[in-house]
Design a protein that fits this description.
The protein is an alpha+beta fold. The protein is built from 16 helices and 29 strands. Strands 3-7-8-6-9-10-11 form a 7-stranded mixed β-sheet, with helices on both faces. The chain has a 6-stranded antiparallel barrel with strand order 12-13-19-16-15-20. A 6-stranded antiparallel β-barrel has the order 21-27-24-23-28-29. The longest helix is centred in the N-terminal third of the chain and has 18 residues. Bound molecules: guanosine-5'-diphosphate. The site of guanosine-5'-diphosphate has 24 residues, from α2 and α8.
């Protein structure tokens, strides 16, 4: 899950909610589609496996697994075929449980040429013939329970087994939304919707390209008084310690040199459930060597035992280690990989059904996104046309500032790598993404097979693809994303996504640096509490460093402050140029595809960076013209879908936020109500 931020001239033309002149953010979504967390289900790299990578070595081959003595090596399958076989076997096990020997299932799949339905029919016919008892429903349920158990057993994996280290990020802790009741707070978690039909996110009908001319707001508030606090001594921590007097650094020059000159890029993977996000990214990490064969083999065993053999790649991104008990409600998993010119922080939100709020937080911190779509007949359509998440995620990430997108047209093996199908998807998606505000030149489409590993880290050599595709593979595309502009020249800002106690004195906070830079020894101000502290250590990707800058996801070890004072969503900033704190602010919003008109007093959940805070729409100030931004109506009685408007919001408790014109990264938010995203907005004026 971020963005680039610029300070802006006094009068701005805003297309949609973005201010860059060339940054078209027309939002037009014709169809209703829901963003129900219940349907959104998991934004996880789920658990499927493909045995292809093991095929090369006997040791990690398909055969001789704990749960199967049956060998298929005699069938001489290609990697892709083995992967297909696994996928089919998974489906069959779902229906048949363990009632049918694997050998029979394999034979059925092979003789049906990977048509799982046909294979099932033939096995079932065979069972009937032999009078075999098919597993009762009860045992199927039991089977599922066992799966769950086995899946849980992954927590017993030792850390050393797992090469890609998944760091967890706490997001929008429950304690952040303890204000008054907002319909949908629970619904979001329970996956059902209290009042509003789940149709929120659609930027309205037709081209809701919005351009708002904006009279900019008050200048920044004056700096906070900085209290001088005694520094405490700290015990050793994994952070780099301040041993000597701080040296001034030339951050821009250092950034160029850092990571061997590689740029850091934050990437979020989005797409409809089951599009293959987990498998794709898990396989990519495997192919990059971020997962050793032994670990992969273990995942294969575990996932097979769980009856979900094709989930193993997805397990790659599963969290490791113990859950930290800090009142966590949602976690975003982060892992790192490298391309030729970039170091990528990959973000995903494992295992949570209340996916959208999670995804908002993730996307708010992303520079770029990979949108995964399932090319299979009917599946792409399900994700794209009939209330699927392809559209909603596309709009959400764009609303949150992501401008560059790689679309993985995945499961191409399912459509025999047909160019026509690829082009059909490109054309449908292209239109939509353009309306959603992505520039054509910033969107690239790559045909892939996450399961087979085709076109992921190297260009596919398969003639089925090479005869019509000469473009980049997924990794090359990720590598060629433009590095985002980092606001290193601006005052320091870090929005807290996690707080925890370190071994030493002091404590740690993690989060993404949105602006400026920080050095060991710096004093920082935490807002809203308005307390200062000292940075005793900084860790970037678990490595101690002396400094870190805008765009970096870091852990800071802090002293001179009580951990109790700090919560997820608080902002650490430069004491001299502090972030603003308020409970009342004005904003320009784009209303999505809502059913119930928004009226004065409307309760919402404000999703802002890592905060989700109850708020009320206290004033409807004006309706704005979609393209000119001129006021078309003052003090409207209500706001309806597709409208652009200026309104005032009141939060339950003070929150730290910034004007969009000053800090683009910190000036965007989303409004949700009853499990649906109802609007995207930018902060235009801070009242009090
Ligand atoms: P997610 O929900 O988007 O993370 O999707 P998963 O990675 O869990 O994949 C969903 C299902 O699609 C699993 O059964 C995978 O094995 C299967 N799958 C994923 N990628 C491919 C692919 O490229 N080809 C085929 N045939 N199946 C795939």
């Amino acid at each position: 899950m971020s963005q680039t931020f610029f300070s802006l001239p006094r009068y701005l033309r805003l297309r949609s909610i973005d201010f860059e002149e060339d940054d078209l953010y027309g939002q037009s979504v014709e169809d209703d589609y829901c963003i129900s967390p219940s349907t959104a289900a998991q934004f996880i790299y789920s658990r499927r496996d493909n045995t292809a990578p093991f095929a090369e070595t006997e040791e990690y081959g398909y055969k001789d697994t704990e749960c199967s003595n049956y060998s298929i090596s005699s069938h001489r399958l290609t990697g892709v075929q083995k992967a297909q076989l696994d996928s089919c076997l998974d489906h069959m096990r779902e229906v048949l449980g363990e009632s049918v020997p694997e050998k029979e299932m394999v034979e059925a799949v092979l003789s049906s040429r990977f048509d799982v339905q046909q294979a099932l029919d033939s096995v079932l016919a065979q069972i009937n013939k032999q009078g075999m008892k098919i597993k009762s429903e009860e045992s199927v349920i039991q089977g599922k329970a066992t799966k769950g158990k086995t899946r849980d057993s992954q927590t017993t994996r030792t850390e050393s087994d797992v090469v890609p280290k998944v760091t967890k990020m706490t997001v929008s802790g429950k304690k952040q939304s303890t204000g008054f009741e907002v319909p949908g707070v629970d619904a979001e978690e329970n996956g059902h919707n209290a009042l509003m039909p789940q149709k929120g996110l659609s930027a309205g009908d037709a081209n809701v390209s919005l351009e708002i001319t904006e009279v900019l707001s008050k200048p920044a508030l004056s700096s906070q008084t900085v209290q001088s606090l005694e520094e405490q001594t700290t015990a050793p921590t994994p952070m780099k310690k301040s041993g000597k007097a701080k040296q001034q650094i030339d951050v821009k020059a250092e950034l160029e040199k850092r990571q061997g000159g590689k740029h850091l890029l934050n990437l979020v993977v989005i797409g409809h459930v089951d599009a293959g996000k987990s498998t794709l990214m898990g396989h990519l990490l495997y192919l990059l060597g971020n997962v050793n064969k032994r670990t992969m083999h273990k995942y294969e065993q575990e996932s097979k035992k769980a009856g979900k053999a094709s989930f193993a790649y997805a397990w790659v991104l599963d969290e490791t280690g113990e859950e930290r008990e800090r009142g966590v409600t949602m976690d975003v998993g982060m892992t790192k990989f490298e391309t030729q010119t970039k170091v990528i922080t990959l973000m995903d939100a494992p295992g949570h059904k209340d996916f959208i709020p999670n995804m908002i937080t993730g996307a708010a911190q992303a520079d770029v996104a990979v949108l995964v779509v399932d090319a299979s007949r009917g599946e792409f359509e399900a994700g794209f046309e009939t209330g699927g998440q392809t559209r909603e995620h596309g709009i959400l990430v764009r609303s949150l500032g992501v401008t560059q997108l790689a679309v993985a047209v995945n499961k191409m093996d399912q459509v025999n790598w047909k160019q026509e199908r690829f082009l059909e998807i490109v054309s449908k998606l292209g239109q939509f993404l353009k309306q959603a505000g992505f520039k054509e030149s910033d969107v690239a489409y790559i045909p892939t097979s996450g399961l087979g590993g085709e076109n992921l880290v190297t260009r596919s050599q398969s003639s089925e693809l090479t005869k019509w595709y000469e473009g980049k593979c997924l990794l090359e595309q990720i590598d060629s994303f433009k590095p985002p502009q980092r606001s290193v020249d601006k005052p320091f800002r870090l929005c807290v996504s996690d707080v925890f106690k370190d071994q030493g004195s002091g404590f740690c906070v993690t989060g993404k640096i949105e602006a400026g830079y920080v050095q060991v020894g710096d004093r920082l101000l935490a807002m809203p509490p308005n307390e200062t502290c000292t940075v005793k250590g900084i860790a970037l990707h678990d490595e101690p460093v002396d400094w870190a800058a805008a765009g970096d996801h870091v852990s800071l070890t802090l002293t001179g402050m009580d951990i109790i004072k700090i919560n997820v969503g608080y902002v650490f900033c430069c004491p001299k140029e502090s972030v603003k704190v308020c409970t009342r602010f004005r904003a320009r919003v784009l209303i999505f595809n809502i059913e119930i008109p928004i009226t004065k007093g409307f309760p919402v959940l404000l999703h802002y960076q890592t905060v989700s805070e109850p708020a009320t729409i206290t004033r409807l100030l004006s309706v704005l013209h979609k393209s000119t931004g001129e006021v078309t109506k003052k003090k409207p009685k209500c706001l309806v879908k597709g409208q652009n408007a200026l309104l005032e919001l009141q939060t339950q408790r003070p929150i730290a936020l910034e004007l969009y014109k000053d800090f683009k990264e910190l000036g965007r938010f989303m409004l949700r109500y009853s499990g649906s995203t109802i609007a995207a907005g930018v902060v235009s004026e801070i009242k009090e």
